Amino acid sequence: MRLVVLGGGESGVGTAILGKEKGYDVFVSDFGKIKQRYKEVLINKGIEWEDEKHTESLILNADVVMKSPGIPEKAPIVKKLIEKGIPVISEIEFAAPFTKAVTIGITGSNGKTTTTMLTYHLLKSAGLNVGLGGNIGKSFAEQVAEDKYDSYVLELSSFQLDGIINYKPHIAIITNISPDHLDRYDYKYENYIDSKFRITMNQTEEDYLIYDADDEAISEWLQKNKTRAKLIPFSLTKTFEEGAFIKNNTMEALINQEEFTMETESIALEGKHNLKNAMAATSVAKLMKIRKATIRESLSNFQGVEHRLEKVLKIQNVQYINDSKATNVNATFFALDSMNTPTVWIVGGVDKGNDYNELMALVREKVKAVICLGVDNKKIIDAFGNVVDIMVEVNSMSDAVRMAQRITEKGDTVLLSPACASFDLFENYEDRGRQFKDAVHNL
């Protein structure tokens, strides 16, 4: 069996390692450059590879192809594979049959990283032998090759879900759905929504789907479509006989005839959206039979995720917050919503078809200045030029931070929450967030 891996990054190299171990004839091909550390792994494992090209004769003879999530289906090589009827799958689909471990799959437009990390923290604190993978951390396929864990918490993007055929998580979570990545879905929101719901398509009556019952797109899909999984909703406004909700400043989770309660103010993560993430993670913990005391302790000591509303420093009574992970409008909505002081907002990057109108009321109420950090800021300037007093364009992070310091007064907040992808000026959102933190530390 010939396995061709497109993309020599974390998921690609992990898949190659697992494929080699399971007796496949493996070839890795990357149209870009493969990082040195990954090249060394491939050479050490005796896996053939190429970079900066796709040699068709070595690819179109595959029995199965694992495509890294970053490669669009419109890529010429992928189109040729599909035309030939060669299955093109994701890392998760390839690796899942090789493990007996229980998987918890988490998707959504926003909140999935925080929910994934929090769920992992809850299970690990309870002493479970649990791995973390998917879009985050170490490759799931490589961990399956090492075969160390009894369960996995996996963060799954819509691109990874597009590449599944038979994979099903025992517990699935959809944190929310808002327009994102529409450039990869023919600019059709319904295609993107369907993509997220692939997480539940193979689930049976023995499996669970945990979802945000306040989310319009999710509720509509569930009204029109069926899943066999047992539904466990969570909400900030409704109550359920089975599910999680907030009532009188208390989080309640009623699952499998058991009740769990915790005062919301004891939960370490701040903001309404984080209450949702906490309800989703608590629902998993209850399904995995974790003790109430452990759940309470874990929710009260969880430190949050880097680049997600991360408090960097307070300088001259101005708080600097790194929310570089906000790569779409919905994520930035949550960030602005949680601001309680006048805010200087650093925004911009590669626009994925953003509609800034939904931020309008929050910007009027909370934002005193907008600093545009992108190659093309026209859309942002058009949207907010008449709404805020100060509008500045910069093209480096250090300029953005220095400008913010000039504009702020005591008691203000400087918020990096770009609402866009980072690829015009940065390697990725982590690079953008680290540059922000470095610039703040250098003030």
From TrEMBL:
One of its GO terms (molecular function) is UDP-N-acetylmuramoylalanine-D-glutamate ligase activity. Residues 307-420 form the Mur ligase C-terminal domain. Signal peptide: none annotated. GO terms for biological process: cell division; cell wall organization; peptidoglycan biosynthetic process; regulation of cell shape. InterPro entries: Mur-like_cat_sf, Mur_ligase_C, Mur_ligase_C_dom_sf, Mur_ligase_cen, MurD. Residues 106-284 form the Mur ligase central domain. One of its GO terms (cellular component) is cytoplasm. ATP binds at residues 108-114. It catalyses: UDP-N-acetyl-alpha-D-muramoyl-L-alanine + D-glutamate + ATP = UDP-N-acetyl-alpha-D-muramoyl-L-alanyl-D-glutamate + ADP + phosphate + H(+). Transmembrane segments: none annotated. Its EC number is 6.3.2.9. Its main location: cytoplasm. It holds the Pfam family Mur_ligase_C. It comes from the Bacteria. Keywords: ATP-binding, Cell cycle, Cell division, Cell shape, Cell wall biogenesis/degradation, Cytoplasm, Ligase, Nucleotide-binding, Peptidoglycan synthesis. PANTHER family: UDP-N-ACETYLMURAMOYLALANINE--D-GLUTAMATE LIGASE. HAMAP family: MurD. Cell wall formation. Catalyzes the addition of glutamate to the nucleotide precursor UDP-N-acetylmuramoyl-L-alanine (UMA). Belongs to the MurCDEF family. This is UDP-N-acetylmuramoylalanine--D-glutamate ligase. It comes from Flavobacterium flevense. The lineage of its organism: Bacteria, Pseudomonadati, Bacteroidota, Flavobacteriia, Flavobacteriales.
